[in-house]
Amino acid sequence: MNNMANDKIEVIQGDITRIKVDAVVNAANTSLLGGGGVDGAIHRAGGKAILDECIQIRNREGGCKTGEAVITTGGNLPARYVIHAVGPVYSGSNKGEDELLASAYLNSLKLAAENQVQSIAFPNISTGIYRFPKEKAAAIAIKTVKGFIMANNTIQKVIFVCFDDENYQIYNRALNVNKHIL
Ligand code: AR6
Fold first, then answer.
1. How far away, in angstroms, is 7 Cα from ligand 1 center?
2. Cα-to-centroid distance, 104 and ligand 1 (Å)
3. Interatomic CA distance for residues 26 and 124, integer angstroms
4. Where is the Macro domain (predicted)?
5. What atom of ligand 1 comes closest to residue 163's alpha carbon?
6. What is the pLDDT of residues 90-149, one digit of tens each?
7. What is the ipTM of this complex?
8. So which residues are the catalytic ones?
9. Which has the closest alpha carbon to 37: 132, 125, 97, 142?
């Protein structure tokens, strides 16, 4: 069963704005108005249509809470949709950050399945400007994704897109170790 989940998971190193999947996930903030890091890259490459929809959602719903996600067009990106997920800022003082990070992944996956998304690419949410420890974030991301795709048949491919070497190595190690054990 776990091997089936592993078959649907891929790790690559690169820029998420260039990946051709049904949906790419953005590491957004609660304002939905863009920012630095992967958020800045997605808005730059995807163009104004994405920001326009984010502003509409913000006007309607007041933004996006930490641990939640919203969906917009992919604009000029090769991806059809962008799922904007808000991960927690890591404080290290056990304020429920692990659960909030898991929720950001889970709510992105739910939104993807509701929109018939078959392939989805995730950046390493919260591990940049929000300073979440990379090893711990990867374990949470992998566990949440595996749990979801084992129970849901809509999503056929999940790509973890790692930008930095450290995350790329952590994900490869984590997924390969699991492959050997299970
Ligand atoms: N493709 C894939 N991954 C990327 C890219 C890219 N083009 N650029 C950066 N990363 P961060 P956060 C990686 O800081 O920690 C923004 O200002 C990066 O190496 O983008 O969730 C938002 O508006 C790191 O591993 O997001 C929020 O305010 C990962 O993406 C805040 O940053 C996430 O780093 C969110 O902080």
1. 26
2. 14
3. 9
4. 1-179
5. 3
6. 998 878 999 999 999 999 999 999 999 999 999 999 999 999 999 999 999 999 999 999
7. 0.99
8. 39
9. 125
